[in-house]
Design brief:
Elements (H helix, E strand, L loop, with lengths): L2 H13 L4 E2 L24 H4 L9 E9 L15 E10 L4 H13 L11 E6 L9 H9 L7 E4 L5 E2 L6 E12 L17 E14 L5 E14 H8 L12 H11 L7 H22 L10 H19 L8 H11 L4 H5 L1 H34 L5 E2 L1 H11 L3 H10 L3 E2 L1 H15 L16 H21 L5 E6 L4 E6 L6 H16 L4 E7 H6 L13 E7 L3 E4 L13 E11 L2 E9 L3
Parallel strand pairs: 1-2, 4-5, 10-11
Antiparallel strand pairs: 2-3, 3-9, 4-7, 6-7, 7-8, 8-9, 12-13, 13-18, 14-15, 15-16, 17-18
Helix pairs in contact: 3-4, 6-7, 6-9, 7-8, 7-9, 7-11, 8-11, 9-11, 12-14, 15-16
Amino acid sequence: MTANELRTKYIEFFVLRDHVEISGQSLIPENDPTVLFTTAGMHPLVPYILGEPHPAGQRLVNYQKCIRTGDIEDVGDSSHLTFFEMLGNWSLGDYFKEEAIRMSFEFLTASRWLGISPHKLSVTVFAGDQDVPPDHESAAVWKALGIPESRIYYLPRSDNWWGPAGATGPCGPDSEMFIDTGIAGTSASRPGVSDGKYMEVWNDVFMQYNKKADGTFVPLERTCVDTGMGIERTIAILQGRTSVYETEVFTPIIARIEELTGARYGPDEDTNRSIRIVCDHVRTATFILGDEKGVSPSNVGQGYILRRLIRRAVRHGRKLGLSREFLSDPAQIVIDMYQQPHPVLRDNRDRVLEEMRSEEERFGTTLQKGEHEFEKLLPNLMRNPERTIPGRLAFRLYDTFGFPLEITEELAAEHGMKVDRDGFEEAFRKHQQKSKLDSNQTFKGGLADHSDMTTRLHTATHLLHKALREVLGDHVAQKGSNITQERLRFDFSHPEKMSSEQLQQVEEIVNEQIERDLPVTVSTMRLDQARDAGAMALFGSKYDEIVKVYSIGGYSREVCGGPHVERTAQLGRFRIVKEQSSSQGVRRIKAVLESGG
């Protein structure tokens, strides 16, 4: 079964069981400063899991683009990926454990669907602890379906528990499904042990409890189900492959890299590692650049990760013998493979290829400058009797010149030296703390929070968006936002720096609407109706057929799903703190709300 067939079958299965297919969302989270990218299929749905009604109803299904960057350095083995697709189905206060598990079992084992032998299936459930009892309910359902007790594993909170999104809130046990690969394994082999014998294929999460501020867990009145199945890993299992890189998701990219380099995938593990890194990083970079909120390579935020991925791919291309620009070649293959389920890649093809080419060209210049700087430092370095390049110096080459540590190490080795990696990593950690770009962050929720201040600032972005269009023109469109309790950050399309007069005018317009104490109302309608009604939105994005439209009096109307105040007078006084460039053709405003509320 191919990835395209799995994606289609999954959606079909759940639509037949009264689920509504909803659109996957952008890789760039909306109003979530805790992560740089959408990290799981449930990420965009957290507000609805937390209780907000979803416009499409209580039973949902979709496929979602995801990126996890915490283990970039691990990419190169047979399993790690930075980009993956997640299939998911949700119950928002509708069915719960029994129906969810029965549907999972049917989709996995029925001949019409995946046709996996039930004898290969093992499952895990929550073992319970001092706070929450064991999940005997899920175990009983699995047993009733024919899974023997010997293949039902009770595991601790570290294995089989989700959440909550923050310090308090909805959370609960999960039940994970594993396929026995047939590998002999060891006496320690069991689901959850990474020795290759058991491969996780699906996870059903049951939001059953509310964690309170005092640390206690009380049952929820409204329970939810959130599930996740990774496409890449599942097709590898279904195809009997030992690696995701042996499936049709990657083999065309590998074939092209072999053509370009003359290298061969298979005989040599060092070569395999470099080919896998190029494959993964090109695919991920293509999806970031081609996203509806696509960002450009830079030294901050998502752009920093994008630049790191592209440059790491270039470096491993060089290790394979490629000295010319080449990334746009495999990027085109990625676009061609994914343009049907993700047409945004087709729509943004030119942007993807141009940005990829441009960043490769910049990196070539970076390598020249870095090598030149290294040569300047070399005489003093050679006088060091320990023959070690200090980590802080290696980090300066990296931070100032974009010079990869691995290349510094290669040059050092050529002169009989080594690099203090521990010192480099310490300098890098300090840099991450200072810039708040910790790429190892994990998902902690949909919005930063639902606090009063975050809600006020989020509502203020609607007024800001409208005011910018009034002052600068209709070409202004939102390109992203990031909201914390302290400030709002709003990116928008505009070709030049705003004047102080324009900034003052925008401030005055926003504060005028606040003083008018306009009502904030919400209505649910079809997307075409929202367009016809003049609602603003990222209409280059992929939306569900039914959307929420928030209106602020007769002033602003916008497609949105976040929290809002009831009247504008609750906001307080709006003040722009800074206006600056975000990327080419995109400006950024940072603003705060003062007093009142």
